[in-house]
Amino acid sequence: MINPIKDKKLELDNEIKGLVLKTDGFNAKLKQSKKDIERRYRELSGLLVEQQGKKPKKSKARVENIENYFSLAIDNIVNYGDTDIFPFPYETRMFEDIKPRLIERLLDVFDNFDDYLIESPPVNISTCSTVGYTGFRWATQVDPFWNVFYLGLCIAISPDIEGKRVSKEKVYSYRYLPNLEKGSLFDLDVNWKKFQESSLNETEADDKIKYVLSFDIADFYTRIYHHRLENALDRIDPNKTYSSKIKDLIQQFSGTNSYGLPVGCPASRILAELSLDSFDHLLEVNGFIFKRFVDDYVVFCSSEEDAHSKLIFISRKLMENEGLTLQKQKTSVMSREEFIGLTKAKLYGVKEDEGSTHKAKFMSLPIRFDPYSDDPSGDYDDLKKSLNSFDLLGMLASELQKSKIDQNYSKHLIKALQAKSDNILSDALIVVFTNINSLYPIFIKIIQVSASNWDRLSLDCQNKIREVLKSLLEENSFILQVELNTAFVCKLISKDNSVANQILLTKIYSKNIDSMLISLVVIQVMAKWNVHYWLSDLKRSFSTMNPWQRRMFIVSSFFLGDEGKHWRDHNKKSFNFIEQLYSLWAAKRKNANTLEKAL
């Protein structure tokens, strides 16, 4: 028998259960999105402030000069790049274009550091770079946005670090002396060459120096102990205004390791100098006469016995206090005469018994174009005149006769060729690429010179370069098994847009899909060439891309017209605060029809 009251009660019970389930689901979603809502509120507040033409209020944490520190950090990266190891990143142009907006975002991150660090933590690119014929060193390209932030924090404490260091007559590496006009950070007159010259002069001038102890610290940057560095940072910045953030970033960069700094960026150079400061002072108070450049020490001794005693002291104190060891292959006790001969060879690229004043004169020439000098064009003309007395092609041919090249000398030769005529440069590069395996230690410098002078090269030279690079890729040459080498090759290929090169880059991309560095460079080249069908196909994998690829694809989407606009409209809610800066910059460049040039 049907009971309408019972049926109605059952119906109401089911409706109530449904409402409860919906409410629970809504509460779960609300809880899950709370953080996203707070983030969006901050962003919308920032946009409102911008529209009203007002500056955001400073939090208690912000200090007055932080804007200046971030400004100098941006200028330094724009003018000099983020490292001296990796390809010059397009972010340098981006940071220059949106500097005011970038500074505002950096200030916001300074005030809300923990929140932003959780939202978009730094993801760095780390890889091996070649040193000589058989050596390698670990190199790191810091996440571009966080690299600026990291450098700004280190600049803030640099005057205090510099003020406590031993004198410039003893330590010659990265002495803080900013030039706001040039955007440079360090005293350019205190450098490796000055270190070598001063060491040589000291030895020759003092008859009491009979032996010299020379040593390098093994794997210096990658073995710097965080705990010791953190203590040094807190001594410099007792209020922890900057040091706490620096320590958090270092930990992010190192993952689970309690040691190591990213190799290659200026911020790490500042911190690396701080990490050795205590040891420098320890040597000083114990009466050691020494000189240092980065991790390269020279200690002057009165006898062989004295040298070995000092070596024991140094080895023990470095391990006990800093957790560092000496590099066995680069630790030596030399007689006065041996040291003088070796130092002259380092400085002039020639052994003393060779007596080649011609070669020494060539090595002394400053082969670089300085746009910030008082008369850059005049300086460059003077250089070209100086090079007229050198047969660079003959010198190159002579060097190639050796079983192993002198790397510093050969690199100097390759750079000097840029100041010669187009014909001489083209002829020289044909010889260079014909002997590319022999010149493996300076491969990247060769590729850089070829790329920066591509339009000057003859057709025969360009064809020779294409032929050699294609052969290296097809044969899976050991040269291109080094990520950095392949990345620089992709940059060179970008100078020549053709279907054949598009096919070549597609193969490189597919083969190196797990390489953040190579995949990033390939996407950049394809965007620069506006290969729309390749970019359109790539957008399907956006959700699985790493942060570097995501940012590059967001920029690339502006080459896809309406398709790109629809894609951004659909995905922009998922863009984090860093990706929004990239989108803003790309839109600005696209509207000015200069985006392709910027890549």
Global shape: globular
Intertermini distance: 80 Å
DSSP helical segment count: 29
State Rg.
29 Å
Structural class: alpha+beta
The tally of beta strands, per DSSP, is 8
Unreliable parts: 26-35, 37-62
Give average pLDDT, whole number. 86
| Helical percentage | 55-70%
Largest sheet: 4 strands, antiparallel
In what order do the strands lie side by side in the largest sheet?
Answer: 6-7-5-8
Beta-strand residue percentage: 5-15%
Overview of the molecule:
The protein has 599 residues and is α+β, with helices and mostly antiparallel strands. It is built from 29 helices and eight strands. The chain has a four-stranded antiparallel sheet with strand order 6-7-5-8, with helices on both faces. A two-stranded antiparallel ribbon has the order 1-2. It has a two-stranded antiparallel ribbon with strand order 3-4. A hairpin with a 4-residue loop joins β3 and β4 (184-186). α22 packs parallel to α24 (516-528) and α24 packs parallel to α26 (547-556). The chain is globular.
State the gist of this model.
This protein has 599 residues and is an alpha+beta fold. Helices cover 61% and strands 7% of the residues.
Q: What key phrases describe this protein's structure?
A:
alpha+beta, 29 helices, single chain, 4-stranded antiparallel sheet, 7% strand, 8 strands, 599 residues, globular
